[in-house]
Give the backbone structure.
Amino acid sequence: MASRASRRLLKDFLLKRVTSTPVSSVRHFSSSSSSETAPKIPHFSKKGRLLTGATIGLVIAGGAYVSTVDEATFCGWLFNATKLVNPFFALLDAEFAHKLAVSAAARGWVPREKRPDPSVLGLEVWGRKFSNPIGLAAGFDKNAEAIDGLLGLGFGFVEVGSVTPVPQEGNPKPRIFRLRQEGAIINRCGFNSEGIVAVAKRLGAQHGKRKLDETSSASSTSNNDVKHGGKAGPGILGVNLGKNKTSEDAAADYVQGVHSLSQYSDYLVINVSSPNTPGLRMLQGRKQLKDLVKKVQAARDEMQWGEEGPPPLLVKIAPDLSKEDLEDIAAVALALRLDGLIISNTTISRPDSVNKSPVAEETGGLSGKPLLNLSTNILKEMFILTRGKIPLIGCGGVFSGEDAYKKVRAGATLVQLYTGFAYGGPALIPRIKAELAECLERDGFKSISEAVGADYR
């Protein structure tokens, strides 16, 4: 297949080179003293001939390479090639670069992972099979535009949102700031969202496509095969719910999200921890959180569900919480049998590692490397407080497989990244998975599940 494709690309390239020769490059000559116009032949300068020859040589060499390598090797080459694009994105405005990346993923202009994940990374959570525990956090694909492309990159799961009931612009621009040397980002986007209707429409189309693919492939798939994935395709899809900035009834906003989007999601997230929506973090208080979760759970459970049951419900919390706050959240989570917690969102603090940067003075949530230790410490606390009874998703500062491994040993069943992906691009994903598998094998774990909370067992 690769050989036919490379030959076709080479043929198209050569045809274009011949047919696009500019008229100005053609000289006339006469075989006699006659003034009649002689046949036209292309003439190139020495530099032009060298450039053309080098280009054709590269195409032929590339075609030969593609035709001889196996699919896994070629897939690895494609992921590594994306590193060449990273410097280009670094030159762009941060928010424009983000939009461009989402657009590229939505159009399939990103590599697609064809290699199987290391078996040691496979696990089952909430009755759903994950091929690996590495996911993309909410905030990247806010409006569910690029789910297929992002899952195709090799993430075990992708979380879209935060989605608000009514469309809103969010905070004024500029609102995303890079701290490149520190491997960090500050954002104060403020739940910019196209709203539930637009997102539901996209998720509905994605869900329909998935069902169609399942039907068409049912005859060629053995019932004994282990299927990884969920409602969106090869990976698990989470939907992160937010509230509108001007809404006076937060619970009603989250309930509306459940009614409209839960049928398309493998899990739902109540986001009460963004620092960029006024008053939102107050919902993490014991009484406020308990009342909110009860209402959202009731709305979900009132809906009609098939054999698979309703989607799990999680809460995403902030890293800027006191020990008492964490105890209250853990008590609510255990009492209401919450399905999981995401730890954590961005921080409003400014660790010493970023204080010297003038960008650190910008208001908003800080993410990236400076958040790793803070979020992991909160993760450890919550794992102990919940006694390992609730699945935790570790998020914050993950840039390597070793970082992900720290989260897992601290109590994370699953791990998310965002800023690391923004800086490292698609090539980071297979690298993290390979490094994580090496960490597990180095320490004698036969599966990722065995390592969860290993530091406290």
Observations:
- Residues 68-215+227-450 form a domain with the TIM Barrel fold (CATH 3.20.20.70).
- The first strand starts at residue 26 and ends at 27.
- Residues 405 and 436 are 6 Å apart (CA to CA).
- The chain has one domain: 68-215+227-450.
